Amino acid sequence: MEKIKDMLAGAGGNIVLAIVTSIVGFYLIKYLMKLIDRVKGFEKLDPTVTRFVKNFIKWLLYVMLIIGVISVLGVPMAQVIAVLASAGVAVGLALQGALSNLAGGILLLIVRPFNVGDFVEAAGASGVVQSINLFYTVLLSGDNKRITVPNGNLMNANVVDYTAEPLRRVDLEFSCAKSEKPAQIQKCILDTVAASKLALQDPAPFARVSGGTNEGMIFTVRVWCRTEDYWDLYFELNQSIVEAFAARGVQAPALRVLNDRA
What pLDDT score was predicted for residue 77? Predict the structure, then answer.
C-alpha cells in the first residue's frame, strides 16, 4: 500500500497537469481556428479547398494535443510510438473504409469533379453540394433532405455535374394525331419557343418528328438555355406548347381501346 501511495503521489502532479493541458489546449485550438477563419488568404481559395484545409488543420491540432497530454503524463514517447506502430496494422485493417474515404476526400480536391454549390448526381444520390469534408460529402436534395455520401464511394462512381457548364439543353417530347401536318406542328412549336425569354436562339431551337405509331406522331424538342434557367424553361415550355396546340386545334393521338376478356 505504501508503494501504491507513493506511485499515486508521484503521478498526481502529472495527472493534474495533463488535465490542465487538455483544457488549455482545447480552448487554444478553438482560438486558433477562429484566427484561421479571419485569414484573408482563404477568401481567394475555392470554398471546397477552404473547408477541407480547415478540417485537416483542426484534426491535426487535436492529434498534437493528444500526443502532448500523453507526454505530460510521463509516458515515454518511444513506448508510445512502438505501441502505435504495432497497433497501426490492426487499426488500418479495421478502418479500411474510413481511410478509403479520407483518400477519396483528398483526391476530390485534386481531381475536382465538382465544387461546393454544384448540383450533382453520384453514388445513388443527387443534390446541391453543401460541403466536402475529410471523410464524406454533404448533399442537399431538391426536397431539402440532407444526404451524406462517403468520399470513397464518390471516387468510385460516375459523377454527373448538372451545373458545371454555363448552358444546358431542355429535351421535351410532344405528340399529335397522325392527320396533322408536320410542318405546321413544327412551326407552332418553334414560334412558342421563340416567344420565351428564357430560351436561347443560339444554338438554334430544334423541333422535328422523331417517331410515331399508327395513331400519332412524336415530336422531339430541344432548346438551349442558361443553366440556372433550366427548370423554369422546362415547365414553361411544357405548359406553353400544350396551350399553343389547344389554341390551334391540334388533335391528340387517337386512343386504341383493347377489350381483353378471358
Answer: 66
Q: Are residues 156 and 175 in the same domain?
A: no
Q: Convert the pLDDT of each residue in 77-125 to its tens digit.
A: 666 666 666 666 665 555 566 778 878 888 887 888 898 899 999 988 9
Same domain assignment for residues 27 and 10: yes
Q: Does residue 210 belong to any structural domain of this protein?
A: yes
Q: DSSP per residue over 141-204, as a string?
A: -TTS-EEEEEHHHHHTS--EETTSSSEEEEEEEEEEETTS-HHHHHHHHHHHHHT-SSS-SSSP
- List pLDDT tens digits, range 34-69: 888 777 766 666 666 777 778 888 888 888 888 888
Look at residue 218 and tell me if it is in a domain: yes
Indicate whether 176 and 143 sit together in one domain.
no
User: Can you tell me which residue has the cell 417530347?
Assistant: 173
CA-CA distances (angstroms) from residue 183 to 46, 188, 189?
A: 50, 9, 10
Can you tell me the distance from the alpha carbon of 190 to that of 176, in angstroms, rounded to the nearest whole number?
15
Residue 258 to residue 173: CA distance in whole angstroms: 25
54 and 82 in a single domain? The answer is yes
14 plus 84 within the same structural domain: yes
